Amino acid sequence: MFRRHMQDIRQGMDHFEQFGRSKGPQGFEGFGGFGRRGGGRDRFFKKGNLQFIILQMLEEESRHGYQIIKDLEERFKGFYSPSPGSVYPILQMLEDRDFVSISKEGNKKIYTITDEGKTFLKENVDQDEFTKRLEQFKNVDFEQMKASREQLQGLFYEFMKASQSALQDEEKQKELNVFIEETKQKLERFYK
């Protein structure tokens, strides 16, 4: 049992280290799948979700790429901040599919939703699970979530140190297993 815990911990450590080194939050799977890595389980932005929300934003008003990035960051109160490397290829794909048109304003490309893009949104809005997921987070206190995430990050770090120490001592291994099980049961009381 302990060895399996340690394998899970080592795999999670890669995720944890990426979180700590990045410019922005990578996220924890347990927080609604926020994040870019997410272990594939339940990522916040699944394939196609970001293009859908960008189209929705362009339906509200035309924007340039940098404005889209900043508006997404503001919409998620800094909890999610897309990179230009994720937004601009999506804008190119939307243009290739004739969902957006581009006009120039100085050095900036202004993206405007087309009739095809509006039709796509209308045909898919009821089927879009992402829109439903976003509704869950409409009134979420992202600052509190960030603070909780930072607390969990610190807790995870302490857990990693304790786990490494327990590798050297069989008695500590048993004690840590009991602690993990008790903690798990206490946490389950919050949502059961």
Automatic annotation (TrEMBL):
Gene3D superfamilies: Winged helix-like DNA-binding domain superfamily/Winged helix DNA-binding domain (1.10.10.10). InterPro entries: Tscrpt_reg_PadR_N (IPR005149), WH-like_DNA-bd_sf (IPR036388), WH_DNA-bd_sf (IPR036390). Residues 54-123 form the Transcription regulator PadR N-terminal domain. Pfam families: PadR. This is PadR family transcriptional regulator. The lineage of its organism: Bacteria, Bacillati, Bacillota, Bacilli, Bacillales.
